[in-house]
Design goal:
CATH topology: Aminopeptidase
Number of strands: 7
Helix content: 40-55%
Radius of gyration: 18 Å
CATH class: Alpha Beta
Strand order of the largest sheet: 2-3-1-4-7-6-5
CATH architecture: 3-Layer(aba) Sandwich
Number of domains: 1
Amino acid sequence: MTDLQKQNLQKPQINHKLIVGGLHGDEGQDLKPIFDKFDNYLSIKYNLNDKFINSENSEITVIPHLNKNYDEKYISTISKGFLNTNAGKNLTKLLNENSPNFYIEVHTYEKASYKNLTNEQRYNKTGVPPLVDISNNILVASVSPLYRNLLSKNTFCMTLEVPKWKLKDDGINNQTEKEDLIDEIISIFKMVLVSNSKDELINKLFYEYPNMQKAKNLAIKYNMVFL
């Protein structure tokens, strides 16, 4: 074994972690309270510098509002047309350049969309399984097959759909409910930050959210990569 090979063996494995929000319209504004509070946590724990953090064994990139510079018509990430949007092109570039070991994609959804997103017939209509409610109307699934295939099967990939109506400051929502939702999403982010492998993170999520098993069963049923 050469000295260079020995040095490479001694180097700690670097996990590249990518968290992206605001792929559509005003989603970035909806998610701002979550990412603002997450910034505060990162600044203390990871010495945040412009959304890019180097910790001992991780490189973490956080992009709260991917679509903030564009005013584009809504196109679902599971539609082939999404890859032709500016947001889609930027996302593809990010995935290719970073080759993340962990990729988290964050969206918001309207209350009226809940049934369509979680309906068992969603696969027949769209080619992707329904999302699963794990807690507090937070929905999870893998990411779009259109770009899931750009990443290794060993890459952890998760879509989080956050209930938009619970983030609004309209005098109707309970502020405590809003803060609880924000803290729960950040708790999931923290699990990502401290996990060193896909299996480790999945185990943590299963322990905290037993309904994750349903998401796994759906992936198996439709012969898709689970997260």
